[in-house]
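hey so i finally got around to running the thing on that chain from the lab meeting. sorry it took forever, my laptop kept dying and i had to restart like 3 times. anyway pasting the input first so we r on the same page abt which one it is
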Amino acid sequence: MKSRNFKSLLTLGLLSSLTLAACGADEGSDTASTSSGSEKDYSIVMVTDVGGVDDKSFNQSAWEGMQAWGEEQGLEEGPEGYSYIQSDEDSQFVTNLNTAVNNNFDLIYGIGYKLQPAMTDVATQNPDQNFVIIDEMIEADNVASVLFKDHEAAFLAGVAAAETTEKDHVGFIGGQESAVIDRFEAGFVAGVTAVNPDIKVDVEYAGSFGDAALGKQLAAAMYSSGADIIYHASGDTGNGVFSEAIDRMNANPDEQLWVIGVDRDQTAEGEYDGGNLTLTSTLKGVGQAVQDIANASMEGNFPGGEVSNFGLAEDSVGITEGALSEEAIKTVEDYKQQIIDGDITVPEKP
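ok and heres what got predicted. didnt touch it at all, straight out
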């Protein structure tokens, strides 16, 4: 599988979307969008994790990659081009994957590790259908698996936080505890500790990727306890982290608080009356992986049965410069090179 630079995707806006419900699109909606040609070319669809394609994070980055692929191919959003099926809860995964199969999409993506059990079942029942799982592995000839070394990017976020904090107290808020989010936590804590082992790191889990209200509550407690920077790896839950930081900065602009975004550039989420409080964001080339696999599959080179694992060396994870100082950026770059050179091995477990 090819690995390309994904940075160009960060400037893509979210276009209008078509959601296929488990039993079809809403009545009266236009579900018959077709490609520019008279014959069906190649169609792809993603089944989201909880949070939707407007979560400003993981799902959205995948959807933006799919939109970019559609534009590149001259295809329109719809069942003969590209689309998505939104999952509002875990129990919908099997139904939504079967809906994708029944709609005859050529390639079906499962966005997130939580879809692994459902996709394993559906892929077994449909051996002639090609699938892609993001953030997990499935051993099957009709499934391509894509993993990312999130811990490497999270390490750099930890370095950035340690270089920026004025209180020697930072925090991490995760979505649901899992091997994937463990990597974010472990990398972040290791990065902070590498710069200054005396910095306090609070860690909390929301138990959900779709609960912004709980994210706001956890952030409120963390900021109140003295943290001035919070890194979230929690999907839509993280929007609550931004909301709490913005409310506090608007109320007391003299107390500088920061949020570190995840999976895509979340600078826009940090805008408030007095400026922007997104310190930096960790990046993850989900959108580019979506494009690369779709292109390879169209050419008859679907990487079924393969596992791809992308990190800093492949330029598939990283962080933005954001509001980092020049000194912090230099320190981040130094650590980044040490990781690429193999001088630092970033832990994957807390």
